[in-house]
Amino acid sequence: MSPPPAPPTRAPSPGPPLPRARGPLSGAWLDAVRSRPGDATFPSRVDPTSGDPLSDDDLQLALYCCYELHYRGFAGVDPAWEWDPALLAWRAALETAFLDAVRDLRPRAPCAAGTVERLRALLDGHEGPSLSSHVLERGTLAQMREFCIHRSAYQLKEADPHTWGIPRLAGRAKAAMVALQADEYGAGDPRAMHAALFAETMRSLGLDTAYGAYLDVLPGTTLATVNLISLLGLHRRWRGAVVGHLAGFEMTSVVPMARYAAALHRLGVGAAGRRFYEVHVAADAEHEVLAVNEMVAPLVEDEPGLAADLLFGAEALLLVEDRFTRALLDAWAERRTSLLAPAGDGAVRVA
Fold it and tell me: Which pTM does this prediction carry?
């Protein structure tokens, strides 16, 4: 019997370059994707080097890289890795470590009459640190640049992680999410896509706008904010949580976005660099109403069993964002970079 024909050669991904390893987990992922799909083995344990899955640089980078295969991939990596069974099984172990840590530390939604009321009480009663207040009142230009480097991991793919939720919904909730996401994608105008507007903010600050350009300097606390959305969006099991996460975004963004826009103005950044934040101030005021009335309420009416997951998504959002904020504020209070290393030509040195 003749041997089966070799699988066709697949063109490598044109995505960003591979990052540097930070430990055994990200190192194992890098070793794997440099080989052929189906040929790699992965560590049997996924213990974070630091002991804290929510901030561990190695675990969060490994998980981020797993998810990135579902977005733009990495230069030179075979696209078939996206659905490699061994990699997916290993990714599931990383996800379990991440989710268990979130469950252990998440805040608890206050008691109220219904899901919408509990969601509002949770978000309105949150008393975490305010990064936007710091940037507005005393942030330096170097800190604003650094902040945008952190946010580039999400903002340059803005809307994509939440969009995974669309095919998992139905009826009014689905239509509302489509409407929200359509605005994020510029309503069909590529120049108005929010990712494109954020790239213009970065350009105005003298930063590299290439997708994935700063991955090597982003700490685990930053990657966790993006990994959370990817995890919730990529699993139908968590469709209620991705709705809660998106609703939490829309219900809490107007005031911070206005502060960031004002901070950029104070720091001398022109109108083009401020547009991303100013657009969000106007859009998110409408998005909040749409998210609550047309997405959250209909979803829990149609599928009341998803109410707890929906609140979990909002709770998890607050948890990872608080950790992200504290990491930046603590670093700046000590007059050091909040990145893993100074980026580029020194443009992000702390003044």
Answer: 0.92
